[in-house]
């Protein structure tokens, strides 16, 4: 089971994907707050930085802040927070920052249970 003391900030610009993943994580026992952009997620994080214990973000999002930039900014503010970068683009997985900053990666398409298992692993 997940833990209610874990609050995942889930950032995904596709509404249906965000809803499915949020529901799957909640069903597994996690608390989830969704955001549709990097800017919205950063605003939510800045309001309550101690509230969030994990970040899951899509890499490609509209606006001025993609998932990589969001993850880097949140890691600057909360160095110990586990981060999962999700992308369907293979080139994202070859970028050097992912190993330097110890981000977990999840390749799209993925099944909800894969995200749940990864969240469980990272929080243990």
TrEMBL record:
Keywords tagged on the record: Phosphoprotein
Residues annotated with 4-aspartylphosphate modification: 58
Keyword Electron transport: no
Gene3D superfamilies: 3.40.50.2300
Domain annotation Response regulatory: ranges: 7-123
InterPro entries in the cross-refs: Bact_response_regulator (IPR050595), CheY-like_superfamily (IPR011006), Sig_transdc_resp-reg_receiver (IPR001789)
Keyword Phosphoprotein: yes
PANTHER family: RESPONSE REGULATORY DOMAIN-CONTAINING PROTEIN, STRESS RESPONSE REGULATOR PROTEIN 1
Name of protein: Response regulator
